[in-house]
Amino acid sequence: MSIRNEDKPAAQGQDGQTVSRRDIFQLSAGAAGVAAAAGIVGGGVMMPRAAMAQTMDNSKSKLYEVLKRGKLIVGTGSTNPPWHFEDRSGKLVGMDIDLARLIAKSLFDDYEKVEYVIQGSDARIPSLVTNKVDIVVQWMTVTAGRAQQVDFTIPYYREGVGVMLMANGKYKQFADLKSAGKAVKIGAMQNVFIEEWVKKGLPEATVEQFDSPDSVLQALNARRVDGYLADQSAMRWVMQQFPNRYTDAGYGWMPNSYASAVRPGDPIWLNWVNTVYKEAMMGVDFDYFAASYKKWFGIELPTPKVGFPQEFA
8 falls in which pLDDT band (50, 70, 90)? Predict the structure, then answer.
């Protein structure tokens, strides 16, 4: 395993198509740089995907390039648990890292034959279209705009926002928050859209914004707010770290899908990665996938039923 750090400050700009809610939380705007690196001019892509597909030769697929090279190059991050972050020993870990290791193992029968290119969220698409990485495994939200620039794999997680409560607090579940109306105060990270997001679930709640996740958590601990609005994966990670201190209010909204992304125009590589992911979710590598979900999210996945493939039921 090797790591290259290319996480640079995000470019200034605004990208209505490709910036996800998570990007905004991390202040990772950078549409201008993305558009320039991706070769997008005036809303069009310089190289039409149909033309790329026509020039695709099976022997030129990324799959065979990676096999010949002898290692996988993955674009990812390093600062966002439980997806990709450094543990106390400095080792890169997280759900995205587990998936990258599984791809390497499926290619070379060796989890360690992977090089990580550490990058900001705004570099995910440029690193693919410039062929700097083989695949991006970096909590990437699937959108129609992004799908014009990259090919997405099948999703491996469904994200959404929710509310984390103190386990011994005044409110026990989401219905309590909703019925309390204006009396409820919800803490969240500063964001121009945060008031709208909170009120999609809790129309009458008061919203208090903070400059960091730690500040929101401190406010919750001090009972200055009744609940903490966050991505559900982040909530689950915090609850894993502090058992019995916090609880999920039990309702999520604003769903979005996380998937990996590859450079467009290579159906062989895309189909192969999809096969790895599908069999991790439903087949031979299910135990590995389920262990990751348990470790990072505290979620116990049900064992796939034997017999007729349930995904086609």
Answer: low
At 311 the pLDDT is 84
Whether residues 192 and 146 share a domain: the answer is no
Residue 16 lies in a domain: yes
pTM of the model: 0.81
Torsions phi, psi for 305 (to 5 deg) = -70, 140
Contacts of range 17-21, beta carbons closer than 8 Å, 24 or more positions apart = 17/143, 17/144, 17/145, 17/146, 18/125, 18/143, 18/145, 18/146, 18/149, 20/121, 20/140, 20/141, 20/143, 20/256, 21/141, 21/161, 21/193, 21/197, 21/231, 21/254, 21/256
| Domain co-membership, 127 together with 214 | no
> Is residue 82 classed as helix, strand or coil in its secondary structure?
coil
**Total number of domains constituting the chain:** 2
Give the whole-angstrom CA distance, residue 233 versus residue 222. 23
Distance separating alpha carbons of residues 69 and 66, to the nearest angstrom: 5
Q: Which two tokens stand for residue 56?
A: 């695709």
Distance, in Å, from the CA atom of 90 to the CA atom of 120, rounded to the nearest integer, reads 18
Model confidence pLDDT, tens digit, residues 47-84? 444 444 444 567 789 999 999 999 999 999 999 999 99
Helix H or strand E segment including 165: strand 157-166
Say how many Å lie between the first and final Cα of the chain, rounded. Answer: 40
Closest CA to 143 of 298, 15, 271, 277: 15
Query: What is the CATH number for 277?
Result: 3.40.190.10
Domain, as residue range, for 196: 160-256
Helix (H) or strand (E) holding 294: helix 286-297
Q: Could you tell me if residue 123 is inside a domain?
A: yes
